[in-house]
Amino acid sequence: MKRLLTIVFLLLSLTISAQRVIENPVIGVRGMGACTGFFIDKIVLNKDVTKFYMTNYHGYAEGKFLIVSGTRIVADGKPLKVISAEGITLDEWTLPKDNVEFVTHFVLNFPAIDKSVETIDFIEGDNPNGFHLYDIALTDQAAERIKQRITMPDAIRNYAANIQDNGESLEREEFTMQPATVKGKIYGYDKRFFAGAANVKFEVEVNIENPFLRRETVATEVKPDNTFELQVPMTVKHQAVWLRLKPNLYSDYVVLSAGKTVEVDFDFTQIYRPWELPEEKLPPYFAGENVDLNYAINLPLLRNFRKELVYNDEPMKKVANFTMPQYKQYILDGYNDYIKRVDTMHVTKRAKEFLTLSLKFEAAEFLSRAYMDLPNFKARVNNDQGPIYMKAADKDFIDYPKILGIDNIMMFYTEDMASVLQAWSSSCNQWFQYYHWYGMSETFEAKIWEMLAEKEKLSKKEKDIPAAIAKKIREHDTAHTAAENAFVKKYIAKYEQYANAEKQRLAEEEKAFRADVFRDGEGYFVDFDKLQWSNVSYYLSKGVLVPDSVISEVEKMSRPFYAQYIKAKNAEVNAKIAAEQARGGYYAHQPGESVADSLLVELLKNNHGKVVLIDFWNTWCGPCRSAMKNMEPMKAEFNDNDVAFVYVADYSSPEDEYTGVIATVKGQHHRLPQSDVDVLKRKWNFSGIPAYVLIGKDGMVKDFAGHGTEYFRMKINEELRK
Hints:
5-stranded antiparallel β-sheet, alpha+beta, Immunoglobulin-like, 6 domains
């Protein structure tokens, strides 16, 4: 008996020594399909089989998953296909058997692997969204190497614990053109995360709400060592910008400072959770400049403010039927409540000041959007599409910049002061134009006819006609009597005189109101309101030259930086135009050149024996500009000797803007009088743009329509084959 027990013990020892168990193996990289809910509990290596003990977290009762029969492990480059499964059926969807935690435990059996193998990969089929796991450690040495590669250092992870409140306030904001720098590293990331996914760029993008041109975007791809660094253009010394780790891994505000560096690091391994990410984003780790502000802005305070007050189902139901004054008071009460919450937060004095500015901005943005949001809320909650208009009492509504005290330079710390400036201006216009000119119960036109009746000496026969006309206008009755038509014809000049005078009076009233709202402010609202009305934002956002006449007006404003900035942007545009002109590849038709009987004759003369595509466009036409850009790859496919691309615009395209655009578009360019272009439009019976005419090698028109790139690629190739 004793001998038998000894033999059994020896056999068990041999069996145990013949297998190796790796509990919770370290995994170097997960594919994007396996980043949540899919885990290896242990791997057992036997001499005749490799067993994977696994768990899938379904998340909810209807959650299901599938393991295909093409699943394999890869050891030393050799694929080993799954043999069998325990607890699930291969190629069939599996629902959770556990209705409490919604999990499924199962085993996959693979062929045995050589004991010298240190890492293996797990590939579930060929779908890029499948369960793919790379660099699974089978030895302690491999596990240690992988940990060193993917683990974020404790010094970075715990940096927030070192933030000290030295009692300093936020630095006074000021204008500048010095860029800021944002850099960082994504620890634990590997490009195999996106393996197999088409056209995926792993990049960092920063959106800057520039008060001069509204929005600028800069981006950079993450380098092979998982680091990134980006120069961010600034117009103020400090500003919150929108930073995105693409595709869709992180997006939130980060406070940058001109001439300084902010570091934003990410721990990619934190996306590997049993089910899903809290807040559905990677948490950032900050270092460098503004650490206290950046940890504060990423706290849930501002997100909760938006959700609790407005942008969620419950608050939306509450405010849907509010009047404008009620909504204003509701937002201001919510703002004051959140300011009290800031006072109790354990953050630095600077961070409290910044969060207070941000809450002011959020409240101002809510109020600036009210005349658009409230009709939408009402329609959504009540299924009622009826519009909500500003009434007479609502004039007091649009004094919220004064109440919140946001007309000061410190507000440029926040993410989008420019949008609040523009939205307030729109709110102001909405009230003055709608109430005075179009009114709730009377239209501007009816008011003017009544005004005319009061001020003009009308005959007995005429005195009742203006009231009758006004009544019909309000009732949308277009059937006028012969006497009414004769009256309108007789007094139309007087009507225009009174209408213009009333519009001028209202404009002066609006101007006085705007001045009163910002009487105690620092003048930034008024300044940027002027800049927006002078079309500075339009020119800068289009990347074209701001005219000298506009710059001259800007130079009269109180702050020299405005004109300095615009001139600097003009210098950039001029440099770009010069570089493109030096590169060549385009021809610009000069106004003095003859176009003979028609532009078509000129085009055929210059392009004999070629296929010619004529593109009718203008600088102000967004779809035209977009289509031109989309056609660039197609143009590169064709030889210049075989195909000519000709662009026709008219004089409605400002010359400076036109010159800047054509320098970047290879081809033959013509800017012609409207009458010349109209002749061609009538010839081919079209009016809208973009529009295209295709001419074959024989000089005959083959097609004219508004088709897109693929259509003309096909048609050009057809003509070239002839």
